[in-house]
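Students often ask why we bother predicting the structure of a whole assembly rather than each chain alone. The short answer is interfaces. A chain on its own may look different once its partners are present, and contacts between molecules only exist in the joint model. In this exercise we take two input lines together and write out one structure for the complete complex. Read the inputs first and try to guess which parts will touch.
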Amino acid sequence: AQSVAQPEDQVNVAEGNPLTVKCTYSVSGNPYLFWYVQYPNRGLQFLLKYITGDNLVKGSYGFEAEFNKSQTSFHLKKPSALVSDSALYFCAVRDGRNYQLIWGAGTKLIIKP
Amino acid sequence: DVKVTQSSRYLVKRTGEKVFLECVQDMDHENMFWYRQDPGLGLRLIYFSYDVKMKEKGDIPEGYSVSREKKERFSLILESASTNQTSMYLCASSSSDGIYEQYFGPGTRLTVT
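Now the answer. The structure tokens for the assembled complex follow.
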């Protein structure tokens, strides 16, 4: 079955420290992977995607994600967290059977000053 | 830039009322989606459409219907609103380019009293 897992409901990081938000996936075929961010009472905003090529993908707001095929993971990272990074983060993968995306449950990221 | 707009940011309706939520995209996308988002439950797909007048049920279609008469517009209809339909409703669109990155509107927070 095709699925996406975000194992942490919440991640707490001190401002200035590196952050990682985890995502693992299970799909048939080549995965197309996405990260989105949602600020309070707003829609989802696209951060970055992996389609093919370099395993390290750079995106908006200084975020990057590392695709690891052997571990079927696509973790979101940032070298130095900002308080303004506090938000809800969603990982998604293209459903190989159709044009939908399969969504993780979301991870709440809290950056403390 | 892709723009997806939703007719209302906040909406308050009474139990039993018929409710229309409208979504418009300006990028000529073939695919459009309606999700609802509730705390702890992530994004759940209500309906989607891959072409004008075409629609398919998502994971939680009960109590909802949709209409897509024009390519740029996708409407979600609550035939008889109930309190358990109080939620955040998100509209998204995507092209049929094989990648299927989704673009979201700002969301409508619906309260049914």
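Check your guess against this: Chain A has one domain: 3-112.
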